[in-house]
Specification:
CATH superfamily: Formyl transferase, N-terminal domain
Number of helices: 10
Distance between the termini: 26 Å
Helix content: 40-55%
Number of strands: 9
Strand order of the largest sheet: 3-2-1-4-5-7-8
Largest sheet: 7 strands, mixed
CATH topology: Rossmann fold
CATH class: Alpha Beta
Structural class: alpha/beta
């Protein structure tokens, strides 16, 4: 069997580095492009903000509370990611045949330089996770198209932080992942596989996310192998879920997610799992089953 030449494009987030490492070990990944959108802080803007608080000191307690919420969220999620993903989330270790390139800046994956870089690889397929929304100059390069791992069930949740939002909205039954072909929209291309991880009573927003990523890795590997042997199936997304954007995740949203978890949102779902799961399974397409299931 002739193996497809795959180029993986990811962000620098730990879960995306983990994703790239797993694919590089199982597929013919000839290149990994890591996009970092981190920008230098605008010092003038920071000074201006601090000056603003000097004239409105009553806002300082709120600011300190929000910072404490974010710090605690980062502390918890970092510890869970380290246990769940291990070193694979923090260091790329591809085989020698795979070339790693790093690109920097907002929407760097769409820059002319990155477009030329991708062309050099002559990929059959692009595989994406966590990178910027790709535009036509990039999407037109791979011979067989592009696949994306979306960390949600697209019929209900599109965009980012979708596992967290499923908890915030008290809908753990909608925690899941979608592997789909990429089009000009956001998380609304043809579905190849969808899956839901096993939820346990002691899960929380981040442990669920780790499970979603690991399930998504398995689904993506299977999807690429299906394309290699010509048996891939495509399913139209018949209903589009709400689109969640990064700016919607505030410290209050983070606080609510953990408060609901501690208040039993997972246990309440598990107590009525049969009825609640039935509604989700009705809308899923390309339901993924591991060997033996």
């Amino acid at each position: 069997m002739n193996r497809l030449k795959v180029v993986v494009i990811v962000s620098s987030d730990p879960s995306d580095i983990y994703f790239a490492n797993q694919l590089a070990r199982r597929l013919n990944v000839v290149g990994i492009i890591v996009e970092s959108s981190a920008e230098q802080p605008d010092v003038r803007r920071k000074i201006g903000k601090l000056a603003g608080y000097a004239f409105s000191p009553w806002q300082i307690p709120r600011l300190l509370r929000e910072r404490a919420i974010v710090r605690e969220h980062v502390r918890r999620t970092s510890a869970i990611d380290l246990v769940g993903f291990g070193i694979d989330a923090f260091e790329l270790t591809p085989p020698p045949s795979c070339r790693v390139e790093r690109v920097y800046g907002k929407n760097a994956a769409n820059s002319p330089e990155t477009v030329e870089l991708i062309r050099e690889f002559e990929p059959d397929l692009l595989v994406l996770c966590g990178c910027s929304i790709l535009k036509e100059p990039v999407l037109s390069i791979p011979r067989l198209g592009s696949l994306n791992l979306h960390g949600g069930l697209a019929q209900r949740y599109r965009g980012v932080w979708t596992t967290l939002w499923a908890v915030v909205n008290e809908e753990p039954e909608y925690v899941g992942a979608t592997v789909h072909f990429v089009n000009s929209g956001i998380d609304d291309g043809d579905i190849v596989y969808q899956g839901r991880p096993e939820v346990a009573a002691d899960d929380d927003p981040e442990s669920l996310y780790v499970k979603v990523v690991k399930l998504g890795v398995r689904m993506m590997i299977t999807a690429v192998e299906d394309i290699e042997v010509g048996r891939v199936q495509r399913h139209k997304l018949e209903q589009k879920g709400r689109l969640y954007l990064s700016r919607m995740v505030t410290p209050e949203v983070l606080h609510k997610a953990w408060t609901l978890t501690e208040g039993g949102v997972i246990s309440r779902y598990l107590a009525a799992r049969g009825e609640r799961d039935a509604r989700v399974l009705e809308i899923m397409r390309g339901v993924y089953c591991t060997p033996g299931e």
